[in-house]
Amino acid sequence: MSEMYIEEIRKFLPHRYPFLLVDRVLECTPGESIIAVKNISVNEPQFTGHFPNQAIMPGVLIIEALAQTTGLLGFRTMSEEPSDDILYMLVGVDKIRFKRQVVPGDVLTLKAKIERRSKVIWKFSCEASVDGELVTAAELLCAASPKDGQ
Fold first, then answer.
1. Which of 10, 42, 55, 139 has the fewest CB neighbours in a 10 Å radius?
2. Which domains, and CATH codes, for the chain?
3. pLDDT per residue as tens, the chain (150 positions)
4. Which residues are catalytic?
5. Sequence-ordered alpha helix ranges (H) in the chain
């Protein structure tokens, strides 16, 4: 189990503001699971349009935050940092459910567990919660492949 702060997260994920959606990793057990957090701030750009009078984090960004969390778990499991030759992508979302809204001031807890792994495709069971209350549950499929698509 190991914590990761933003400096280390940025070594593993190519995303940058405003699209880096993991602020800290609380626990990571390579080959098994990860728990991370995203602090939700009213200053984030999506809130100017979603929705100006009642800021709600878009569900697709919650899924992206979970996908970035799976990327951290995948790279830690493989004991390597991303390279310029590999593209790690979300390729499928199954059994998704949204249970509650996420608003500025919330701390979104992101959990992912490896369900299975083939040569290229990884399947994760994922949950996002706020204060222990389930926000979103989904199965995510991710793939690591050469950037040239071969």
1. 42
2. 6-146 (3.10.129.10)
3. 689 999 999 999 989 999 999 999 999 999 999 999 999 999 999 998 988 899 999 999 999 999 999 999 998 998 777 777 778 899 999 999 999 999 999 999 999 999 999 988 999 999 999 999 999 999 999 998 777 755
4. 50
5. 6-12, 59-77
